[in-house]
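Fold this complex.
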Amino acid sequence: MFTNIKRLLIGRPLKSAELGEQKINKTKALAILSSDALSSVAYGPEQILIVLITVGAAAFWYSIPIAAGVLFLLTALIMSYRQIIYAYPHGGGAYVVSKTNLGVNPGLVAGGSLLVDYILTVAVSVSAGTDAITSAFPTLHDYNVEIAIVFVIFLTVLNLRGVTESASVLAYPVYLFVLALFILIGVGIFNILTGDVPQDLHAPIGTPVAGISLFILLRAFASGSSALTGVEAISNAIPNFKDPAPVNAARTLMMMGALLAILFSGIVTLAYFYGIVPKAEVTVVSQIAEETFGRNFMYFFIQGTTALILILAANTGYSAFPLLAVNLAKDKFIPRMFLVRGDRLGYSNGIIILGLASIFLIVAFHAETEHLIPLYAVGVFVPFTLSQTGMMLKWLREKPEGWVPKFIINTTGALISFIVTMMFFLTKFSQVWSILVFLPIIVLIFHRIKKHYEAVGDQLRLTTCEPALEIKGNVMIVPVAGMTHVVDNTLRYAKSLNPDQIIAVNVSFGREDQKKFEEKWEQWQPDIRLVTLHSYYRSILGPLTKFVDTVANKAKENDYQVTVVIPQFIPKKGWHNILHNQSSLLIRSYLLYKRDIVIATVPFHLKK
Amino acid sequence: MFTNIKRLLIGRPLKSAELGEQKINKTKALAILSSDALSSVAYGPEQILIVLITVGAAAFWYSIPIAAGVLFLLTALIMSYRQIIYAYPHGGGAYVVSKTNLGVNPGLVAGGSLLVDYILTVAVSVSAGTDAITSAFPTLHDYNVEIAIVFVIFLTVLNLRGVTESASVLAYPVYLFVLALFILIGVGIFNILTGDVPQDLHAPIGTPVAGISLFILLRAFASGSSALTGVEAISNAIPNFKDPAPVNAARTLMMMGALLAILFSGIVTLAYFYGIVPKAEVTVVSQIAEETFGRNFMYFFIQGTTALILILAANTGYSAFPLLAVNLAKDKFIPRMFLVRGDRLGYSNGIIILGLASIFLIVAFHAETEHLIPLYAVGVFVPFTLSQTGMMLKWLREKPEGWVPKFIINTTGALISFIVTMMFFLTKFSQVWSILVFLPIIVLIFHRIKKHYEAVGDQLRLTTCEPALEIKGNVMIVPVAGMTHVVDNTLRYAKSLNPDQIIAVNVSFGREDQKKFEEKWEQWQPDIRLVTLHSYYRSILGPLTKFVDTVANKAKENDYQVTVVIPQFIPKKGWHNILHNQSSLLIRSYLLYKRDIVIATVPFHLKK
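Structure:
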C-alpha cells in the first residue's frame, strides 16, 4: 500500500548506476537554480524606492546610481563565484570555501547560515507567491496557510522525483517570466525613446534633494541588494550538472548574472522614467505593466508569471539545501542520514527535512513571512562575506599566475558584502538580531554532533580496546504470561539452543494466582525452572527487571551471558496490535538500553 | 525525569492492597457524581422557555406543568435506577442491564451510546464553563480553546491522582453551588410570598394561548428533560463506593434526585413569577439572581459557582467513563488496556483516553459545542429507554415478590424516555441524525474486537493445535556493516550458543567495496562464512530479506530454526539515536512481522 502510493508520487526507484542520467544541462539548470535570484527582481527595485520615498519623490533619481551600485556588487559576486566554481569544482560554495581558507568555525558559520537561509527561502517565497495569488482571489485569503503548505508539499514531491524531472516541469514558468519581463522592458524603453512618456514624470538626475543623507542612501543600497540572494545557489549545486560540470556551472552562472542585470536595471529604469511611487496595495512591477500596456492580456501575463516565479523561487532552496547538507554530513557536522540517496537518487532526507522545516515556519508565522526577509538577506550576506574573504586569502597564499585581478575581484566583493551586512545590522537591527543568537547555537550543535561521531568511531575501532572477554556459558530467561502456544513455542526454541540454564519467570498480581500457576506449571513443564514474582504495584516491568538484574550480576561473575527470550504473538492485521498489551516492547527497550542483556524475540504468527 | 514529573503530578504509586482506601463516602460521591445532573439546572429551565417564547410570553405559564412532567420523569428515572443499583450491585448501569435482559446488541447500543456521551459531556460542559468565564473577561475570549484544554488537562490529572483526591477537591464547589441556589430560591420565594414581586409580571396559570400545540409542548418537554442527563452516572460507578456499596449508592442517588428536583422546580417557579424572558446574552439564572439581589456580592457568588459547576460537570464523565469501559473490556468488546489500574489505582487508560477524545472534540469544534447538546441528550435517552425496558422484562420474567409496583415504575420510565427520544428525533433531526450513523459503526467495531480476541484465545490455547514441531538445529545470520567491536561482540555471542551454522552478511553498494570487504574479512574472521550482497537500489533491507528468505526456506525443509542476530550499539544519550541509522529497527520489525524468524539483538553500550 505505502509502496504503491510512494511509487505513484515519486516514480519507480532508480538504480545507483543511473545517476548520470539524473544530471541536468545548462538550460534546465538555469531554470531551477536561478528562480530565486530572478524572482527577486519582482521586489528588489521596490525596496530601493520604499527607502527613498521617506525623503520625497524628488529623491527617486538616486535609484539609478544605487542600482548601478547593486549591479557593480552583482558583477563582483558573479565573477567571484565563477572563480569559486573553478577552484572548488565539487561544490559546497561558501561552506567549503570558508572552511578551507578561513578555518572550521567560519566555515560552519557560513554553512549554518546558508542551511537556515534555504529554509527561509522556501517559507518566504512560497508565502509571497501564495499572497500574490490570494490577492487576485480574495475569497481564498483565509486559506493562505493551507495553500502555501500545498505548494511546499508539491515542490517536495517534485524534488523527490528527481532533479531532471523538477527541472523539466519548472523550466517553462521561469522562462515565461523572463520573456514577459523582456517584452515589458522592451516596450517600455521603446515608449520612452519615442517620447511617449511625458518628461515631467521624473526629476532629472542630479536634482538636489533636501534631507538626503549617506545613511539613507546606504540603507536603500542594502535593501536593493536583497535582490542578490540566490546568487550562491549554483556554486553549491555543481554536482548536479552534466560533465564537464564546472564549465557548465560557470556558464550558467554568467547567464544568470546577465539576465539578472538586464531585468534589474530595466525595471529600475522604467520605474524612474514612469515616476512610479511605491504603494502598499500595488507592486511596482504591476504599476509599470499597467502604465505600459493598460489592463490587457500582457498585464495579466506579467502578473501571473511573477506570482508563479515567486513560488518557484523556493525551488532554489530545494536544489541547494540537500547538497550543502551532504557537504556538512560528510564532515560529520550533521546527521549521516543526509548522505543517503533516495529511490530517485536525490538526497531525499534533505529534501524532506527542508519541506517539513519550511511548513513549520509557514504555520508558525501564519504564512506572513515578510518580516523574515531582512533576516534572510543577512543570512545570505554573512556567507558571501566569508567566502569572498576566504578567496582573498587563497589568492594571497597561493599566488597562482595572474592572481592579482582575481584578488581584486574577490576583495571588492568581500568589502561590499561586508558593508551590506553591516548596513543590515545598523538599519534593521530589530529584525536581524536573532541571527546573532541562533548562529552560535547552530555552530555549537555542529561541534557536538561531530564530537559524538568521533567518540563512536573511536569506541568501535577494533585496534583501540581491551581484549574481548570470552563468553563461558549462557543463561536464558523466558518471561511467561500464561501457558499457551506462544510460550510453548518459545521454550522449544530456547531448549534447542542448549543454554546452561533456562528460567521461566511469571509476574502475578495476587498470591492465589501465583500458587495456582506454580502448580499447573509443575505439570506442564516439570523440567524448566519457574520463578514467580509478586507485583505490589501492578507493574510487570518493575519486578521483572529487578529479577533480570539479579541474574545478570550473578552471571557476570562467571562470565556467563544472559539472554531474555521474549515470546511474542504477531496478529494477522496491523490494527490488531492496539488490542494487545505491548509490554514486551517496553521490556525489550528497557533491558536493551539500560542493561547489557541480549534480547531475543520469538514470533508466533496468528493465522486469523 | 519522566518518573519524577509523573510523581509530582499524580502522586506516589499505590499498592494494589490499598484499593479499599480509594473508595469514597456518600458526601463526596454526591459531589463528584452529581455535578453533571445538578449543573443542568443552570440551562434546563431556560431550554423550556426558549421553546415557549416561539408562541409568545403568554405561554410561559406552561413551563409549570412541563416542569411537573420533567419532575415526574425524574422521579421515575431515580426510582428505576435505584432498582437497577440493587439488582446489579457491581455497576454497569444501562450497558449491563440492557445486555442481561435484552441481549448483546441492545446492550452494546446502550454502552456505545454512553461511552460517546461521556466524551460529549466533558467537551460540552468544559466549553460551556469556559464560555461563562470568558463572558465575564472578554479579553480572554480568543483563548477559549486553550483555556478549555487546560481545564480538561486539569481534570484528567486530578482524576489520575485518584477518586478520593478528586472528590475532596471537587466537593466544595459543588456544595457551594447548591448552597448558592438554595439561598437564591429561598429569598426569591420569600419575596414572592411577601408580595414584593408584582402580580402582573406573569400570566396566570390556565390563560388560553393562541397558537400553542401539542408539538410545541412536547418539544419544550424534550428540551427540559435535557436537564436529566447525568442521572445514570451513579449506577455506573457503584464500585467506587464504600461498602455496603449498593446501599450507599442508592442513598446518594435519592439525595441527588431530591436536590435536582428542588433546584429545578425552584428555578422554574422563580422564572415564572418574575416573568423572565430568555435572552441571548444573559442566562435565565443570571436574570433571576439580578432580579432578586441586584448586582451585589450574592449575584457574583451565584454566577461564579454556576460557571464552576459547568466545568466540574465534566467530572461526572471522568467518574463514569472508565468504569463503563471496564465493563465493556471485561466482555472483550473494547481493548483490554481499559482493565489496567494505574499507579493510583484508577483506570488510568480510560481517564487518559477520555481526556484526549474530549480535547479532540474541543479543538475540532473550536470550543463551540452548543450544537452538540441535542446529540448528547439523545445519547443519554437511548440508554435510558433500553435499560428501563430491560428492567421491565426482568420483572416480567422473574416475577419476584412485590414485582408489580417495580414493573409499573420501570414501564412508566421506559415509556417517557422513549417519548423524549422520539421527540428529539422528530423536532431536532438535523442535529441528532448522526447518532443513527455512528451507533451501528460503534457496535460493529465492538463485535470485530470481540471476534479478534476470541480468535486469538482459540489459537493460543494449548488443547486446540497440532503437535509442535521439534527444532532439529539452528542457523544464525549476523548482518555486519563493518569490522568493529559491535560486530565482534555479536559474533562472540553467536559462537557461544554453538549453532549448526553462522553466516555473516554484508550488503555493499559498490563492486570494489565488496571485494575489499571480503579480503579483509578472510583475515579477520576466517572461520565464519561471509556472504556479500550487492544492492542496486541503495537499500539494505531489500537484499538482506531476500537472502534471509532463501536461508529460511532451506532451513525449514530440515526443521532448522533461523535466528537473525543483530549487532546494535547503544549510544550513551537518547538524543544520539537520531544521529545513527536506525536500519536495525527496520530489519527487526520486517523480519519479525512478515517472516517466522527469531530476532536476537545484541547490545554494545558506548561509554561516551
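DSSP finds 22 helices and five strands in chain B.
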